[in-house]
Amino acid sequence: MLGTFSATPEALDSRNRALCDMQVWPTAQKLDWRGWLRNFPAEDQHYARCLLEAFVYMSNATIDALFKAGFRSLSRSVGPFEPPADARARWHRFMSTVLVVLVEGEEPSPTDSAHLFARRARDLAHVPDSRILSPADACGQLLHGSARRPVVFVDDFVGSGNQFVDTWVRQHTSTSGAMTSLRELALAGKCEPFYVPLVATTYGLERIRYDCPQVKLYPVHELGDEYSCSNPTSLVWRPDLQAGVADFLSRSAARAGLNPTVALGFHQLALAVGFEHGVPDATLKLFTHRADGWRPLVRFDD
């Protein structure tokens, strides 16, 4: 979606209608690009169209395909593909013992997107429910198990990496009263941990590599600074607009009634990405903010 830049308003409208028709984007009732563009005055329309062209929306069908690709990529970790019979046997052993663990926020909620990925692990990767666990339950199984087991963390998005690091080091009390964390269990040789997020920022991945060196990372897509809307030289912006990007974002935030820092999203990552089940908090708030006089591009409450 990035780097087209040449679209006229008519061509952009035609493209967006085609994306809806192909179900790459949702209906215009949920993704209102026309109303969103009207948030911006005429002199800012070139900037707004760059943002719109940069926005990547992932439907549930796309998420399913990415999830399967990410999970299958783990086959690279279990040994060489030759000879085929040995490779299949190793993969079968991996899949017959793997634990899938959810990445939880500071205050776990039934509405966390992790639960959507638990269902995908069951339905798309065919991992039984008994081996799809919360971090606390995974700690209990690993602590009292005798064999080292593969553990796969599944998630949609890594922004700052905070949520995964918190999941990794959080202490849990087992049924025997012992306190432990997934990190401690990995250091004790109880598990071989993998993390398979669909989309991850380079910043978040570097944080996880530093704080959780035992974890093997298999992101399906990695987003570096070249995907940040606050970076004037990123792929989002036309070269002739780069000098004015900071001023455009500042005055747009003021027009929307947003603090300029808040407008850039969590950790000021200023991304242009959304999933059908929700938009990461690291996404530029101009896409989702709703207030009198400001229409969101993406709606999740209709």
Q: How are the secondary structure elements laid out?
A:
Layout (H helix, E strand, L loop, with lengths): L8 H13 L11 H5 L7 H10 L1 E3 L1 H13 L11 H14 L1 E4 L11 H10 L8 E2 L1 H10 L4 E10 L3 H8 L2 E2 L5 E2 L1 H6 L3 E11 H10 L4 E2 L3 E3 L21 H12 L3 H4 L9 E3 L27
Parallel strand pairs: 1-10, 2-3, 2-4, 4-7, 7-8, 7-9
Antiparallel strand pairs: 5-6
* CATH fold node name of the largest domain: Rossmann fold
How does the overall form come out from the CA principal axes?
elongated
What fraction, in percent, of the residue positions are helical? 25-40%
CATH architecture of the largest domain: 3-Layer(aba) Sandwich
Number of helices: 12
Order of helices and strands: HHHEHHEHEHEHEEHEHEEHHE
Radius of gyration: 21 Å
Structural class: alpha/beta
CATH class of the largest domain: Alpha Beta
Q: Tell me the fraction of residues in β-strands, as a range.
A: 5-15%
Task: Explain what you see.
The chain has 302 residues and is α/β, with parallel strands linked by helices. It has helices spanning 9-21, 33-37, 45-54, 60-72, 84-97, 114-123, 135-144, 162-169, 182-187, 202-211, 245-256, 260-263; strands at residues 56-58, 99-102, 132-133, 149-158, 172-173, 179-180, 191-201, 216-217, 221-223, 273-275. The longest helix is centred in the N-terminal third of the chain and has 14 residues, at 84-97. It starts with 8 loop residues before the first helix and ends in a 27-residue tail after the last strand.
